[in-house]
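SAMPLE LOG
Freezer: B-3
Tube label: C17
Construct: single chain, 339 aa
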Amino acid sequence: MRRWTGLLLRAALLLLAAAMVGRGLPPGVWRWFTPERLLETAVRLETGAVRAPAESAAPEIVLAAPEPTPSPVPTPAPDVPDHTPEGLPILPASFPGGLTLRNATDDTPDLAALLAEGPSWRFSPEGPQVLIVHTHTSEAYTPSDGNRYEASDTMRTQDPNFNILRVGDVLASRLEAAGLSVLHDRTVNDYPSYAGAYSRSGAVVEQMLAAYPSIRMVIDLHRDALCSDTVVYKTVAELPDAEPCAQVMFVVGTDSLGLEHPDWRENLKLAVWLQDAVTQRHPTLMRPIDLVRERYNQHLSRGMMLIEIGSSGNTLPEAIRAAELLGDAMGSALAGLIE
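STRUCTURE (predicted):
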């Protein structure tokens, strides 16, 4: 869903700089200025908080020093693809999260104060409490062994067994296991026309909130897209059990573009509170909260947020693993809000 603006421009500038100084570099150093390495550097500059997982980290380049010896990289398992179906390389990236904010607005929220306040609403014990919708319902992941699908577009499919609906099913079941009443709306909002998907999903949210006034939290569940024309990134949560797992990001909209959204700080308060709860249990699962200028329908509820699970470079099992951990940790915290 999200698009990382400026990556190609930064990569091009870095490539130009490398070309200007490359003739004077010691042998072996030039190989670090490949398009893939340059794009990875561009992602670091764009986000300010990305690093390669420890097992595949490139050693720091020190000019006028002996060429460093790279650490050995384990051979990937047969069912973990390293290229997309279109042939683009997939590079792993881990975004240190914790109680941090990637802020695209002019506001400077006090995260500690927001965390201390916590959510300003509570769940009723009667009726549905949480609604899960999907603006981009056909979003899918990199096909892997046992998880191949008929594509309706690049990294998209209408098969609910392999798109974001499957991940939504997992998240809903984990929240329900924690004692919450969850409605998972399966309306397809992005097909056959991708344009207007937010208008259609917004109408779904309004209808559901009118039909079920007990709903206090709305989740618009997506998968991210960290890519360019030459490379695709997969997010990696470095877990103690080493089981492959994607990372998760909360996206909070604001009124920065002039659209009415008076309660966006309430949405941010919820995101900060949940970010802290999940990070306490799984320190590497969460990416920084993304505070954006767009509102993404979040003006419809004081308890609404957009959640990105994994990226297009991740596989479906990696996204499902992330949804399981997120649902368990988030469900435990949210259950404490039931009156």
